[in-house]
Amino acid sequence: MTAAEKTFLSHPFDDDKLKEECGVFGAIGMADAANFVALGLHALQHRGQEAGGIVAHDPEKGFNSAHRFGYVRDNFTKASLMESLPGPLAIGHVRYSTAGSKAAVIRDIQPFFGEFSMGGCAIAHNGNLTNAESLRRELIEHGAIFQSGSDSECIIHLMARSFQKTHADRIADALRRVEGAFSVIAMTRTKLIGVRDPLGVRPLVLGRIGDNGYVLSSETCALDIIGAEFVREVAPGEMVIIQDGVIESTRPFHDAKPRFCIFEHVYFSRPDSQIGGRSVYETRHQIGVELAREAPVEADLVCPVPDSGTPAAIGYSQESGIPFALGITRNQYMGRTFIEPTEHIRNMGVRLKLNVNKSLVKGKRVILVDDSVVRGTTSRKIKEMILDAGAAEVHFRIASPPTAWPCFYGVDTPDREKLLAARMTEEEMRDWIGVTSLKFISLDGLYRAAGETDGRNNSCPQYCDACFSGEYPVAPSDQIGKGFTMKTAKAAK
Fold it and tell me: Reaction(s) catalyzed by this protein (predicted)?
């Protein structure tokens, strides 16, 4: 076994998926807004499962907050906790760490709160600031005292140093100093504020509930759980300020061509969400259709790798005419119990999460449809499980192009040398995983599935696809300072 192979196999129970960034949700104009925020965060749990927090404001009791490790359902469903968060205005955040310390530290949990001359303000941030390290050094040199390892705390400190007269103006002032991707929601004593970076890399939507209630959310699926009406997406580079049932819209940044994260279509967003007026499920189904057209193969069954591969597998099956089957079952109740101290449990790896229907796949030529290949370790294990169950052939079809570049905009991506596609050709990956065939959807095919009928405009891409193309719409300043080399000089404008 080579050193490279040992590196890829050094994560025996790693689920080999890109980790979602974070989820944000805010509500204003309704009694006990924190309860609505808790429900919204529950719907956004797929975007971050490490921890969650809520800050609420009540005119009589002021600001109150709660920050907890673990799932929303295990913390923010307790009456005693929710009663401590009264008021008609609240924001919340679910976290998967993408910057700063990976250790479990309660002070890293958002929303963050600051007391300013014009009153308190809390913020929650989805995304990643690519110049956070240089900003942090500058702020510390000028006397700032950081309380967390999160890049998002830079925003609070930049606000504190602004001479603007309102919270909204200070937020805009601060965000003009940062680089990277951000969808930020903030709250003062009377206002709910939402803002997206000029490229609109990360999502943010606006909803309405009742006569004067409004919500901001990372995804539309969180509107559905509270019965809110989808109003519209917050536009790239837009700030919305909501107070007393009135929405004010401003444009605090220079105009730029939007570059929304295309991986939201592939994996991050829930399939029942809407992006750009289009169902995420519909896009993933169409990815399967495009895959079947680009990479046909003779086989007996099309099986998804649960759960994110299911819509694409259905599309592949319908386009190819090959029967769809649930050849792999996911243990929905496993939680985090696969992380056990015993060597025996660790060696079970993927088998704790997935189990093969042996009677279904035995003797069959099986097409497995998955959303992505990152390190390739899980693909290799699943292949072994399918062959152990008696399958005659295993063909992998991947619903995204090869992930060959790290993301610096809010996704926890391994270092580039740990990405399988960064070191191997498609044929080498096929041999390393050990499957009969391996094919990825093309970048043009992915764009077509997302509704761009002519595919990718190479001179001016419609999405951020840096993890596939290596073309970064915002230069990752901190990483370049550490020696990271981008693929093309045209990437950073």
Answer: 5-phospho-beta-D-ribosylamine + L-glutamate + diphosphate = 5-phospho-alpha-D-ribose 1-diphosphate + L-glutamine + H2O
